[in-house]
Specification:
single chain, alpha+beta, Lysozyme, Membrane-bound Lytic Murein Transglycosylase D, Chain A, 4 domains, two-stranded antiparallel sheet, elongated
Length: 504
């Protein structure tokens, strides 16, 4: 058992908190009735990696070595006796300030990570190659145990966009009030709770504060999850017990599984090879990126078009920008993270990035009025990746990443997944007194397609045009074009044909 530190000041402060509630509580309380079945939050955040775009759009493949350390087949799932788990954890525990004891609850989480959710663990291991060096640097700076990097796995599975049902957000799962206390700004364009660097500093400061209260790392973990007020009440209900396992029955249900999950993560991350667990291929590691201050408002699309960086990679490296736009307000400088090998290109092409040709690219204002759409494109004879990318205002790098393409050629007939932008649908404003007569029925109804002027804008179809291209050129949507022109799914556009594209 690890030694705990106590003082008269700490006890007085704890019982003061009991009366006032948790002032600094940034994490969700259980909120469930005693007999209610609920989704394990640790498993839920791991599941969130299923829908993370950076995996869906390109690098979910697991990088199995040609010859694994223990010569397992790629699909092998090793199993071990409980004595093996206990022995391995004892070795880790001997070098840790945490009480990493083995029991049936810990075993359940070990099996979750090593058996039931193996593929998601591979994704999490890919993210760890990017985030762990940053965590370790800041934990060392604050003189905190390096094992606390595993806390972020329990909180968010290293998903920078993770959001709990209570609203806790980011890798370290800060609620809005707690984030504000520790200097994390949240507004329309930016959520610094999703900023890996700033949120890690805030987490270190919060963890250091909690240790000053409780003097025991197991208790700090529990307080980080449920709030120091809940922890203080659990201590009181237990009759003044001083260790996590003694007060565990009195804690919220989520927190009862939280520390065992942390112990299991310590085990799994130290014995990945023994369980035939290998990382997915990461987009970038910590040492492969660099940062630059942005002088003017920029969209990810502006950067992607000039530097040929996939949009999802920019989102992966810059998760705090909520609308894929980097704002610059007043004297504040926003920071852009880029692959290190693109930094020189950014500096040399700043003018083209900040001031794109209106005919060739969308700027940040355009992007705010657009929405991302996903569709399948069938390659035609004579087409190349570059021509397809230009057609949909995307980059060749995006096309390759989304479709797992490693060469610069593509065969006719191949189906490509494309993520592109369309203008968000705008519902035309209809005046209440704008009425037209339905001659078939003799009734008078509001006009659906007329505003003050009641006149349409038209576009003349050119050779090679598609509804999608026409929609993009006229800053509208395919659905809106179909509605205005009463078009069905079988559309045959002819050069010279005039179609409605909007209302004057």
């Amino acid at each position: 058992m690890k030694k705990t530190k106590n003082s008269f000041f700490t006890l007085v402060l704890l019982f003061t908190i009991i009366g006032t509630g948790s002032v600094f509580c940034g994490y969700s309380q259980s909120g469930y009735a005693p007999d209610t079945l609920y989704d394990d939050p640790v498993a839920a955040v791991l599941d969130s990696l299923n829908g993370l775009n950076l995996f869906e759009k390109g690098f979910a493949k697991i990088n199995y070595p040609r010859t694994s350390k223990y010569h397992f087949a790629p699909d092998s799932v090793p199993r071990y006796e409980e004595l093996v788990f206990e022995s391995r954890l004892a070795k880790i525990d001997a070098e840790s300030p945490f009480d990493l004891q083995y029991n049936s609850v810990v075993k359940g989480y070990i099996e979750m990570y090593t058996v039931r959710k193996r593929e998601l663990v591979a994704r999490m291991m890919a993210l760890s190659q990017y985030y762990f060096p940053l965590f370790e640097e800041q934990l060392d700076k604050y003189n905190l145990p390096l094992e606390l990097k595993y806390l972020a796995i329990c909180e968010s599975a290293l998903n920078p966009l993770a959001r709990s049902r209570a609203g806790a957000t980011g890798i370290w799962q800060f609620m809005y009030p707690t984030g504000k206390i520790y200097g994390l700004k949240v507004y329309s364009y930016v959520d610094e709770r999703c900023d890996p660097y700033k949120s890690t500093i805030a987490a270190c400061e919060y963890l250091k504060y909690l240790y000053s209260l409780f003097g025991d790392w197991q208790m700090v973990l529990a307080a980080y999850n449920c709030g120091e007020g809940n922890l203080a009440r659990a201590i009181r209900r237990s009759g003044g017990k001083k260790t996590y396992w003694e007060i565990r029955p009195y804690l919220p249900r989520e927190t009862q599984g939280y520390v065992p999950a942390f112990i299991a993560v310590n085990y799994v991350m130290n014995y990945t090879a023994e369980h035939n667990l290998y990382s997915a291929i990461p987009k970038k590691t910590f040492l492969q990126v660099d940062t630059v201050c942005v002088k003017k408002q920029l969209s990810f699309l502006q950067i992607s078009n000039v530097l040929d960086i996939p949009m999802d990679e920019l989102a992966y490296l810059n998760p705090c920008y909520r609308k894929q736009v980097i704002p610059v307000t007043g004297d504040a400088r926003s920071v852009l993270t880029l692959p290190a090998n693109k930094m020189g290109a950014f500096i040399n092409n700043e003018e083209a990035i900040y001031n794109p040709n209106k005919n060739d690219s969308l700027n940040s204002e355009d992007v705010l009025a657009m929405q991302e759409v996903k569709f399948t494109y069938i390659v035609k004879n004579g087409e190349h990746l570059s021509t397809i990318a230009k057609k949909y205002n995307i980059t060749v790098a995006d096309l390759k990443s989304w479709n797992g393409i490693t060469t610069n050629t593509v065969k006719a007939g191949k189906k490509l997944t494309i993520y592109s932008y369309q203008k968000k649908p705008v519902v035309p404003v209809v005046k209440a007194n704008t009425l037209v007569e339905n001659k078939a029925t003799g009734t008078v109804v509001p006009s659906e397609n007329r505003t003050t002027s009641g006149e349409f804008k038209y576009y003349t179809v050119q050779k090679g045009d598609s509804l999608y291209r026409i929609a993009l050129l006229n800053k509208t949507t395919v659905e809106e074009l179909k509605r205005l022109n009463n078009l069905g799914n079988n559309i045959n556009l002819m050069p010279g044909q005039k179609i409605k594209v909007g209302i004057m």
